[in-house]
């Protein structure tokens, strides 16, 4: 918590319950307050003069400024609107600001609060801190002081959210060097996907991305976001299969303090962190059934209720979903809600297999070779004619992810694996094999490298463990 004051003697205030008017002064022209442009502010003060001053100070700079004359009116506004910052007077008739703030935190209020007061005693400061106030501005104050306090809150929250989203993305992603923001390739299949993305990106429509694992669904999702009018807002990727079922509601919706064992403090969820931007829910077919009904309600109402909260919070989101499962079959088996499927399946974009993308594999291999050699600090390995032929003929069960892993393994070894392609040790070219034989040799070669660890082999190849098991059973390995 910070304390803002215009002079050392500002801590002294009148003995009466009414607080002094704001100190006259010009609005600061020096500091930049760009963060305020998209902010929604709620002012809670029983003095009309103070509310009027704050509205005149903030309204020209902020997206929305609401005011409430008492805590009851403020509570009703919180029930129907979402605010980034609440500016709260402490001494008011009926209920003081600190007590009201503590009550709101307990029922699901996450926005920053700035307490304004003429009384700067230690007890008030401690109570404000415990209630969750982010700043403490002493009366009398100038316009620039309240503007600076609001800007600090907005910057702090932005940095917190960006930090959390980045850390979450790093935990959720097993491939940090993947070309996530570019849909590479000039094949007819890739051009069709790119054209569809360009048509749908600027619309608010939810998008369902389908295709096998490793075909680039997150790449397509990021492309949609970057071409939309939300490009400068957060893009939050969530792998539904990577979150334990017992934690997924708290991760998505957030929770209040004490909502469950270990919830020592309240926290906004990924829905709220993505507010204004795009939420990408990958592996949506893995979402537990109870969460499917909650997601359906969010899609219909655009409101979320944090775990343990009594209040629903409005959110402004663009949803993109992805799955490598056939959701229609999952519906028939009772593992996916039919009403949610029809709600998701407004605009579907299918990502083609790498083997169906023609010469894209050559372009991708060259790009991966360049990027990964720089990242690993190793010299690039030439991609000669025999390697290009093998790249073109291989079936790529792990799609683009498998190709990327092959290039990384090649850089580590200093040459393409003998069981894949390229010149042999005796200088003879590898004979042309069937696609099935190339696939068998490559998978068995990776299994040999990891001493038979199928889980690790699946990770390196970018395919599922079930695929490895099925192939090994077929080959009687």
From TrEMBL:
Gene3D superfamilies in the cross-refs: 1.10.8.60, 3.40.50.2300, Homeodomain-like (1.10.10.60), P-loop containing nucleotide triphosphate hydrolases (3.40.50.300)
GO molecular function, one term: ATP binding
Protein's UniProt keywords contain Chaperone: no
SUPFAM superfamilies: CheY-like (SSF52172), Homeodomain-like (SSF46689), P-loop containing nucleoside triphosphate hydrolases (SSF52540)
InterPro entries: AAA+_ATPase, AAA_lid_NorR, CheY-like_superfamily, Homeodomain-like_sf, HTH_Fis, P-loop_NTPase, Sig_transdc_resp-reg_receiver, Sigma_54_int
Region (Disordered): 1-27
Modified residues (4-aspartylphosphate): 89
The Response regulatory domain, residue ranges: 40-154
PROSITE patterns: RESPONSE_REGULATORY, SIGMA54_INTERACT_2, SIGMA54_INTERACT_3, SIGMA54_INTERACT_4
Entry's Gene Ontology BP terms: phosphorelay signal transduction system; regulation of DNA-templated transcription
Ranges where the Sigma-54 factor interaction domain occurs: 183-412
Entry keyword set: Activator, ATP-binding, DNA-binding, Nucleotide-binding, Phosphoprotein, Transcription, Transcription regulation, Two-component regulatory system
PANTHER family in UniProt: TRANSCRIPTIONAL REGULATORY PROTEIN, TUNGSTATE-RESPONSIVE TWO COMPONENT SIGMA54-DEPENDENT SIGNAL TRANSDUCTION SYSTEM RESPONSE REGULATOR FIS FAMILY
Annotated protein name in UniProt: DNA-binding transcriptional response regulator, NtrC family, contains REC, AAA-type ATPase, and a Fis-type DNA-binding domains
Species for this entry: Bradyrhizobium shewense
């Amino acid at each position: 918590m910070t304390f803002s004051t215009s002079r050392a003697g500002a801590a002294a205030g009148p003995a009466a319950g009414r607080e002094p008017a704001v100190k006259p002064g010009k609005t600061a022209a020096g500091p930049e307050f760009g963060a305020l442009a998209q902010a929604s502010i709620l002012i809670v003060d029983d003095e009309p003069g103070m509310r009027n001053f704050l509205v005149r100070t903030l309204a020209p700079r902020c997206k929305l400024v609401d005011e409430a004359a008492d805590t009851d009116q403020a509570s009703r506004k919180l029930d129907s609107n979402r605010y980034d910052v609440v500016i709260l007077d402490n001494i008011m008739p009926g209920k003081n600001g600190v007590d009201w703030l503590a009550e709101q935190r307990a029922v699901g209020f996450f926005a920053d609060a700035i307490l304004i007061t003429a009384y700067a005693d230690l007890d008030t400061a401690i109570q404000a801190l415990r209630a969750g106030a982010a700043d403490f501005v002493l009366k009398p104050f100038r316009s620039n002081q309240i503007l600076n306090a609001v800007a600090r809150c907005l910057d702090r929250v932005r940095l917190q959210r960006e930090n959390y989203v980045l850390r979450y993305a790093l935990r959720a992603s097993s491939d940090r060097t993947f070309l996530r923001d570019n849909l590479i390739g000039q094949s007819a299949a890739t051009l069709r996907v790119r054209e569809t993305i360009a048509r749908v990106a600027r619309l608010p429509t939810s998008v369902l991305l389908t295709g096998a694992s490793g075909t680039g669904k997150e790449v397509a999702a990021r492309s949609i976001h970057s071409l939309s009018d939300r490009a400068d807002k957060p893009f939050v990727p969530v792998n539904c299969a990577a979150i334990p079922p017992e934690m997924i509601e708290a991760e998505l919706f957030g929770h209040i303090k004490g909502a469950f064992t270990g919830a020592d403090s309240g926290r906004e969820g990924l829905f709220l962190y993505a507010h204004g931007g795009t939420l990408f829910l990958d592996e949506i077919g893995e979402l537990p059934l109870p969460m499917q009904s909650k997601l359906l309600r969010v899609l219909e109402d655009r409101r979320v209720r944090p775990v343990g909260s009594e209040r629903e919070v409005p959110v402004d989101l663009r949803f993109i979903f992805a799955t490598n499962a056939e959701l229609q079959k999952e519906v028939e088996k009772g593992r996916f809600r039919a009403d949610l499927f029809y709600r998701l399946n407004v605009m579907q974009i299918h990502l083609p297999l790498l083997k169906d993308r023609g010469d894209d594999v050559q372009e991708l291999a060259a790009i991966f070779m360049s990027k990964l050699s720089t990242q690993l600090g190793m010299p690039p390995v030439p991609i000669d004619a025999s390697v290009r032929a093998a790249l073109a003929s291989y079936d790529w069960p792990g799609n683009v992810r498998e190709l990327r892993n092959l290039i990384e393994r090649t850089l580590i070894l200093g040459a393409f694996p003998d069981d894949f392609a390229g010149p042999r040790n005796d200088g003879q070219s590898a004979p042309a094999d069937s696609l099935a034989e190339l696939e068998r040799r490559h998978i068995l070669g990776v299994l040999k490298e990891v001493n038979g660890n199928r889980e690790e082999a699946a990770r390196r190849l970018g395919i599922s463990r079930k695929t490895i098991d099925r192939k090994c059973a077929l080959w009687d390995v």
